[in-house]
C-alpha cells in the first residue's frame, strides 16, 4: 500500500485529513510517525504558494508523496485579515496565538462592525507532491459571517469554527460539526481534496 504523508503538526488537522481520505487505499502517515521535526518557512504570498512550497519541501525531505494544506480565515471588513497569518494574529513576526487568543482578537477587531459588513471566508489551498516530482494544487473557499459571540464547542486546532456563522443553516461551523454535518456540506478542505481525486487514485496504484 502506498504511503501518503500528511505534512501537518496540527493533530486536529491531521485527524481531519485521515477522515477525509478514508475512502482511498492509502497508508496515511504523519510527520511524527516518520520522526520529522523540521519546519518549513512559509515565504509564499498566497495560500497556494505556501501549500506548494511545503509539499515540495517535505517530499524532498522524506521521499514520500506528500499532501499538505495552507488555510486561514479572511474577513472582508478587515481587508482580508488575518488571512495568511490566521495563527499569528498580531503579525507575522509575533508568536502564534492560542485558539482562545486568536478567537478573542477577531471578536475584538469586529466590535461595532454592522451585521451586513461581517462577511468572512474560510480559505484553503491543498498541494499534493507526486512520486514523479509533480506538485498539484487545488483551492476552495467556504463563505459565512463572523458571529458576535462564540457558539458551540471550541475544538483544539480550530479557533474560528465557533464564530464562523452560516446564515443558510442558522448555525456556526462548530455547531454543524457536532451534528456531523460539517464534512458533508461546509468543509473547505474536503472540497479542495476532491479536486485532487484523480491524482489520489493514481497513488493507490503506485508501487513503492
Question: In words, what does this structure look like?
Answer:
With 208 residues, this protein is α/β, with parallel strands linked by helices. It has a seven-stranded mixed sheet with strand order 2-1-3-4-5-6-7. The model has no long low-confidence stretch (mean pLDDT 93). The protein is built from seven helices and seven strands. Strand 6 (164-166) and strand 7 (171-172) form a beta hairpin.
What order do the helices and strands come in, and which of them pair?
Blueprint: E1 3-6, H1 11-20, E2 27-30, H2 47-62, E3 66-75, H3 99-109, E4 119-129, E5 135-146, E6 164-166, E7 171-172, H4 173-179, H5 182-186, H6 188-194, H7 197-204
Parallel strand pairs: 1-2, 1-3
Antiparallel strand pairs: 3-4, 4-5, 5-6, 6-7
Concise account of the structure shown:
The protein has 208 residues and is of the alpha/beta class.
| DSSP strand count | 7
Strand order, sheet with most strands: 2-1-3-4-5-6-7
Quaternary structure of the protein: single chain
Strand content: 15-25%
CATH class: Alpha Beta
List keywords for this structure.
208 residues; alpha/beta; Maf protein; 22% strand
Amino acid at each position: 500500500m502506498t504511503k501518503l504523508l500528511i505534512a501537518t503538526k496540527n493533530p486536529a488537522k491531521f485527524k481531519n485529513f485521515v477522515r477525509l481520505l478514508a475512502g482511498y487505499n492509502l497508508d496515511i502517515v504523519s510527520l511524527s510517525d516518520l520522526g520529522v521535526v523540521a519546519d518549513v518557512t512559509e515565504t509564499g504570498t498566497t495560500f497556494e504558494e505556501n501549500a506548494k512550497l511545503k509539499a515540495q519541501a517535505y517530499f524532498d525531505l522524506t521521499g514520500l508523496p506528500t499532501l499538505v494544506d495552507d488555510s486561514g480565515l479572511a474577513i472582508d471588513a478587515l481587508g482580508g485579515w488575518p488571512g495568511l497569518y490566521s495563527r499569528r494574529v498580531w503579525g507575522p513576526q509575533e508568536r502564534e496565538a492560542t485558539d482562545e487568543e486568536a478567537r478573542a482578537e477577531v471578536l475584538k477587531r469586529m466590535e461595532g462592525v454592522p451585521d451586513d459588513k461581517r462577511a468572512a471566508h474560510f480559505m484553503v489551498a491543498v498541494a499534493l507532491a507526486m512520486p514523479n516530482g509533480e506538485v498539484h494544487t487545488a483551492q476552495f473557499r467556504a463563505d459565512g459571517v463572523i458571529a458576535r459571540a462564540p457558539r458551540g464547542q471550541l475544538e483544539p486546532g480550530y479557533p474560528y469554527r465557533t464564530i464562523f456563522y452560516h446564515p443558510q443553516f442558522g448555525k456556526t461551523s462548530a455547531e454543524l460539526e457536532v451534528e456531523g454535518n460539517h464534512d458533508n456540506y461546509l468543509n473547505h478542505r474536503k472540497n479542495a481534496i476532491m479536486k485532487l481525486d484523480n491524482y489520489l487514485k493514481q497513488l493507490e496504484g503506485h508501487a513503492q
